[in-house]
Amino acid sequence: AGHTEAAVDFARLAGLNPSGVICEIMNDDGTMARMPDLVAFAQHHGLKLGTIADLIAHRRRTEKLVRRVQEGEVEQAIGGTWRAIVYESTAAPGEHLALVKGDVSSDAPVLVRMHAASLFREIVSGRGLGDLHAAMRVIDAAGRGVVVLLRDPRPDALSIRLKRGNAAAIAPEIRDYGIGAQILDDLGVKRIIRLSNNPRPLIGLEGYGLQVLETRPIAAEKTP
Fold first, then answer.
1. Which of 113, 148, 204, 214 is positioned for an S-S bond with 52, CB 3.0–4.6 A?
2. Which residue from 132, 129, 163, 128 is spatially nearest to 146, judged by alpha carbons?
3. What global pTM score does this model have?
């Protein structure tokens, strides 16, 4: 979720056409206005101010985007027994999978790997499993954590991936952190340590009641 999606959501919630135009507000010195600057700007001009976290919190209170459809235990080469929970998205067709190790519903920080599953990257090209396996080993060693496997819901996902070629990474839209965040919320996770080699912060997760304490890099394993 980002500013573009938020603009569309605000229009939709107002009962208007789900479209919008966004712009950045600049300070007098040419720098981009940040939250303290925007608060002052809104007060000066008598404008209402909302954040992405506010919007997400509202939708979280009024909408449920995932539901459990199946769960059980699975045996994996890494970590042995995991609790597997299949979630169905109500926003788009498709199922997602959570692999849970230990009790993750307490207030203690939880190791979390949010992973965009890709048939081409992981099965056809043999890439991508290194990060996943490394995260699973870290979680297994800690005895507690969650791996969320997110699937691309688009019916033409394979065609799009093939058209983009081998150089293309998984499209950012596939990493639907909103769905992943609701899955974590359903599991009772509140404070997370994110296992990722991408230092870019995730926007708006606090709207789901999640607190990212840190992003911890993982050493990717080489796939044969």
1. 204
2. 132
3. 0.67
Pick the more confident residue, 203 or 114: 114
The residue ranges of every structural domain in the chain are: 3-50, 66-216
Rounded to whole angstroms, the Cα distance separating 5 from 18 reads: 10
CATH match of 66-216 with 3.80.10.10: no
Q: Which residues, 6+ apart, have CB-to-CB distance to 173 below 8 Å?
A: none
Which of 119, 78, 110, 115 shows the shortest CA–CA distance to 197? 115
Tokens at 204, concatenated: 């708006």
Torsion region of 128: left, alpha or beta (phi above 0 gives left; psi -120 to 50 gives alpha): left
pLDDT in tens, 146-179: 999 987 655 555 565 566 654 444 443 434 678 8
Q: Which two structure tokens, joined as six digits, stand for 152?
A: 């691309």
Q: CA-CA distances (angstroms) from residue 112 to 16, 87, 145, 211, 216?
A: 37, 17, 6, 12, 10
8 Å CB contact between 206 and 53: yes
CA pair distance 158, 164, nearest whole angstrom: 10
